[in-house]
Amino acid sequence: MGEQKFEGRRLRSRDWFEPADKGGFIHRSWMKNQGYPDHVFDGRPVIGICNTWSELTPCNGHFRKIAEHVKRGVYEAGGFPLEFPVMSLGENLMRPTAMLFRNLASMDVEETIRANPLDGVILLVGCDKTTPACLMGAASCDLPTLAISGGAMLNGKFRGEEIGSGTNVWKFSEEVRSGAMPLCDFQEAESCMSRSTGHCMTMGTASTMASVVESLGVGMPMNAAIPAVDARRYSLAHMAGRRIVEMVHEDLRLSRILTREAFENAVRVVGAIGGSTNAVIHLLAIAGRIGVKFELDDWDRLGQGVPCLVNLMPSGRYLMEDFYYAGGVPAVIRELGDLIHRDALTVNGRTIGENTAEAPCWNREVIMPFDRPFAPQGGIAVLRGNLSPDGAVIKPSAATPELMQHRGRAVVFETIEDLHARIDDPDLDIDETCVMVLKNCGPKGYPGMAEVGNMPLPPKLLKRGITDMVRISDARMSGTAYGTVVLHVAPEAAAGGTLALVENGDFIELDVAGRRLHLDVSDDELARRRERWQPPAMAHQRGYYKLYTDHVMQANHGADLDFLVGSSGVEVTRESH
Ligand code: FES
Predict the structure, then answer these.
(1) Per-residue pLDDT for 7 more than 70?
(2) How far is the CA of 447 from the centre of ligand 1 (A)?
(3) pTM of the predicted model, to two decimals?
(4) Span 227-245, pLDDT tens digits
(5) Do the beta carbons of residue 493 and residue 445 sit within 8 Å?
(6) CA–CA separation, 386 and 498 (whole Å)
(7) What pLDDT is attached to residue 520?
(8) What dihedral do alpha carbons 2, 7, 10, 16 form, nearest 10°?
(9) Gap from CA of 127 to ligand 1 centroid (Å)
(10) Which of 104, 295, 363, 530 could link 326 by a cystine bridge, Cβ 3.0 to 4.6 Å?
(11) How far apart are CA 204 and CA 153, in angstroms?
(12) Residues with CB under 6 A from ligand 1
C-alpha cells in the first residue's frame, strides 16, 4: 500500500499496513474510520502513545493534553502517532492498594504493545505505580521506548507556609490526633495542598520514579522536575515525540538504555535526592524484566558514599517546583561526578555524562554541593538478621539518628485492622522505647504490600511530644512519609517469615550502622512458635487476587509475578483473521 518511504530495516508495522490483500484491507480500512488518510500507512514509523490518563488517577488527569503535544512532535518528524489507554493506577483512591495492580497494569502495557502494529512507544507516566508498571511492560517487549513523566503539582501553600503532598497530610493528621490542630484547619488545608494538575510535589514515590526515569536515561533531560503546568513540560513532550521517531530509525531499543550501568546510576541518584524506598522494589522488578542482574544488596552497596544532596520534603524543606528552578536531576547528576557511569546512553542519543556536563545549579539551598551535603548518608540501608533473613530496608535520611541503634520491647499488631482498633486506646501498653511491629501487610498478606508501614503513633505519646518510634513491618511506606521505619521485611509474615512469630514483649534490636535486625528470641523458642503458626486465610480465592497471591514474589525480588520475569520480545506470527 503506497510507496515504502523508509529504507533499511523493515518496521514491524509494515506487516499490518503494507499488504495489498484481505489482511491489509482490514488493518487499514477500520483505521480510516477515524479520518486517517492513505499516506499515514506509507511505511512511516507508527508510534504508540501509552496513556495512563484517568479521572480516577488525578495525578495523571492532564495526560490527554501531554499526548496531544507528543503527537505534534511525532507528525513533525514524519511518524504516525496512535494513542492508547492502559489501566491507570491512582494511589489515593484504589483499594486495597494501587501496588496490588502494578503487575496487572504491566501486563496490559506489555500485551497491548506486542499485539499492535507499533514500532516505538512513548509512555506517559506519573502517579506512583504508573511509572514502574509501564516500564516493566515495555521492558518485556523491548521496542524503542521513551518515557515522559507528567510533572509535579505546584507547591502547596497554606497560611503563608509551603506544604507538601502527603508529608503534610501525615504531619497535620498527627497534630489533629494530638489536639494541636483544629479539624476545620485540617479541612481547609485540602485545597491549599493540591492546587494544580500533577503528581505529589514532595520527593515521594512519583517524583522519585520520575527522577529514576531520567537517571536511567529512558526520559529526556529535565523530565523529572518541570512542573505539570509549566509550558516547558509540553515542549518536552513535543520534543520527545520528535525523538521517538528518530529512535525507531536508529533501532535504539530499551535494552540498549536499561543496562546494568543505568541501574547503578539510578540507585545513586535515588540516594542523592533522598528518594522513596518504593524505588527499591520497582527497580528490582524492572531489572528482572529487561534481564539485568541487579539485587537488593546492590542498593546498599551502591548507595555507600552517596550523600543526600537535595533538600526536599519528606527529608528536607523544599518542594519539586523549587527543585526545577534549582536545576533538577541534571544538576544532581553533575554533582555526583565519578559516582555516575557517564557513558550510559540515554534516549536523546547522547550519554548521561554529555547531557549533564554543563548542568547549572541555581540554588545551593535546594541542591547542595557534594562536599556540603544535606545529609551525609543518602541511600537505602538493607538490614538482615533472624527477623529479615532475605532483607528489609530503611531510609536513614528520613529516620531519627538517635533511634538508628535501638533495642526495644515489641508491641505487636497482627493486622492493619488490629492496629486501627487499638492504637488510640489510652490503656495500650506502650511507651516511646517500644518497637511497633505490624504483620500481614506484605505482598501476599495485605494483599499488595500497602503503604501502611509508617504506623501512626499512639495519641498518648503524641501528646507528650513524641514524634518518632522504631516501627517494623512487611509493608511499604509512602515516599512522602518519614520516621525510623523498617520496611519490606522478607520473607513477609503471611509467607511464614520470622516476623509472623514475633510476640508482645519480645525484644528487638535495630542496628542500622551494622545493617542488623534481630529478634532476641532463641532458635528453639522460634521453632516451637513455628510449629503452632497457621498461615492467614487469603482474601479472595478467585480472579486477579488469586493469580497475584499465588504468584507474587517477595519484596527482595521486586514483588513481580514469577511468570512475568523476563521478556517475550514483540514477535507475533499469527494473524487474527
Ligand atoms: Fe499520585 Fe502521590 S497520589 S503521586
Answers:
(1) no
(2) 20
(3) 0.97
(4) 999 999 999 999 999 999 9
(5) yes
(6) 7
(7) 98
(8) -10
(9) 5
(10) 363
(11) 12
(12) 59, 91-92, 127-128, 165, 199-200, 204, 206
Dist. CA 495–CA 427, nearest whole Å: 31
Residue type, 283: L
User: Which domains can be identified in the chain, with CATH numbers?
Assistant: 44-154+196-356 (3.40.50.2300), 157-193 (no CATH), 384-540 (3.50.30.80)
Average pLDDT over residues 258-272: 98
Average pLDDT, the chain: 96
Q: How far apart are CA 275 and CA 282, in angstroms?
A: 12
Length of the chain: 577
- Measure 98 CA to ligand 1 centroid, in angstroms: 10
- 336, 344 in Cβ contact below 8 A? no
CA 104 to ligand 1 centroid distance, Å: 19
162 C-alpha to ligand 1 centroid (Å)? 18
Pocket test residue of 52, 129, 165 for ligand 1, highest count of atoms within 8 A of CB = 165
Does residue 3 carry a pLDDT above 50? Answer: no
User: Which residue's CA is the nearest one to ligand 1's atom 1?
Assistant: 127
Q: How far is the CA of 188 from the centre of ligand 1 (A)?
A: 20
For 404-463, the pLDDT digits (tens) are: 999 999 999 999 999 999 999 999 999 999 999 999 999 999 999 999 999 999 999 999
Q: Please give the average per-residue pLDDT across 538-557, as a whole number.
A: 94
Evaluate whether 520 touches 385 at the Cβ level (below 8 Å). Answer: no
The atom of ligand 1 lying closest to the CA of 59 is 1
In this predicted structure, the answer to whether residue 167 has a pLDDT above a threshold of 80 is yes
CA-126 nearest atom, ligand 1: 4
Question: Mind spelling out the 3-state secondary structure of 447-482?
Answer: CCCCCCCCCCCCHHHHCCCCCCCEEEECCCCCCCCC
Instruction: Give the pLDDT of residue 1.
Output: 45
